[in-house]
Design goal:
Radius of gyration: 21 Å
Number of strands: 0
Distance between the termini: 18 Å
Largest sheet: none
Order of helices and strands: HH
Structural class: mainly alpha
Length: 91
């Protein structure tokens, strides 16, 4: 039974990491704008937008990995309790 608290702790940490990474990505992307720069006079804004998009692109793999970990832990916990319920009612 020592596995249950460990599962819940890992799930909680993965959930907190997911929330933290999502908030960080949202903070990075708050100044991002979807626009096309046609004139050379706006090269400064274009470079700023490219930097923001680059930063967001770098954090996306981490965001997906943490989200996958949280999803996997959720499935593991649900599966554990389903198996436990079948064991208890099978007696």
């Amino acid at each position: 039974m020592a596995m249950v608290p460990v599962m819940w702790v890992v799930w909680g940490v993965s959930l907190l990491l997911t929330i933290g990474v999502s908030l960080y990505a949202a903070r990075l992307g708050r100044n991002e704008e979807s626009q096309i720069f046609l004139a050379d006079s706006s090269s400064h804004e274009q470079s700023e937008q490219e930097q923001i998009a680059s930063r967001i692109g770098k954090i996306q793999p981490l965001k997906h990995a943490v989200l996958a970990l949280a999803g996997l832990m959720t499935l593991l916990i649900v599966a554990y309790y389903i198996v436990d319920a079948f064991r208890q009612f099978g007696r």
